[in-house]
Write a structure and sequence with these properties.
mainly beta, twelve-stranded antiparallel beta sheet, three-stranded mixed beta sheet, 1 helix, 60% strand
């Protein structure tokens, strides 16, 4: 059971800080960056444990099984890294290659219960149910346009590694569920000239080495310089115990309306 999340307030103390340094070296664009920010996924901290058969102080009723109460709270992360980009002409078109490496610190991971331990003993020795770990992500992106720049394509290879991993850890974000993760993604996008490039479409397929798949189709329309519409559809496939496979029957729709002024 979860309590109402404690969201960051609008005060300055909840700010996010980003620093970026760019330079050029022999036709290479090089960036160094640091980001002090809130995690996109709130962390569930255990706050109370009620054994089976005892009275729940929150509902005033007897619980029929061991019950944990958790509180979802936003947490801070430190991310630093570098990006290197280079463009080149090959096979009659311009290619853009980008390598990016991010190192994230103080990310929370949930911990599974040790085998053979009761829930009450687990709560006593590990009341929060989470622990901090650092992880690194390295990605290579290759972009090119085809058919007189009508069709844009990108290829992405990603490798993630979590430091201090053990089999009891459970990642909070999709795909971050083991010490090493490999991801392959291929995307196609097009702006339709008969709408003066106001209407756009993109298709992105992502694949993990364990067989997990995720697909995304999106349509966008620029109504004016101030108004933008976006719709996305996600569907998933894979093994039932993998991050994407467990969402095999849980397709998602996302709609966005953006007004700029």
């Amino acid at each position: 059971r979860s309590r109402v999340p404690d969201e960051p307030s609008a005060s300055f103390s909840t700010h996010e800080l980003a620093l970026n340094l760019n330079t050029k070296w022999r036709k290479w664009d090089i960036s160094l960056f640091y980001f002090y920010h809130w995690d996109d996924s709130p962390t569930s901290f255990r706050r109370a444990f009620i054994p089976k058969g005892e009275i729940d102080p929150f509902t005033r009723s007897i619980v029929d099984r061991d019950t944990f109460y958790t509180e979802r709270k936003p947490t801070r992360l430190h991310t630093l890294g570098t990006a290197v980009e280079k463009q080149g002409w090959m096979l009659g078109r311009n290619w853009i290659s980008l390598v990016e490496v991010n190192y994230t610190m103080n990310d929370y991971f949930a911990q599974a219960k040790p085998a053979g331990m009761s829930n009450e003993a687990w709560f006593r020795i590990d009341p929060n149910g989470v622990t901090k770990r650092n992880w690194i992500s390295a990605a290579w992106n290759l972009n090119a346009n085809f058919f007189q720049n009508e069709l844009k394509t990108f290829l992405q290879l990603v490798y993630d590694r979590t430091f201090g991993w053990d089999d009891r850890l459970r990642g909070t974000r999709s795909g971050n569920d083991r010490r090493d993760n490999f991801l392959f993604a291929l995307g196609l996008s097009k702006q339709f000239s008969f709408t003066n490039d106001k209407l756009g479409m993109a298709v992105i397929h992502s694949y993990r080495e364990d067989g997990d798949n995720a697909q995304r189709v999106e349509m966008s329309y620029k109504v004016s310089d101030y108004l933008y519409l976006l719709g996305r559809y996600y569907w998933f496939a894979g093994n039932s115990d993998d991050p994407w496979g467990q969402m095999d029957d849980k397709d998602m729709l996302h709609f966005e309306l953006k007004y700029s002024f």
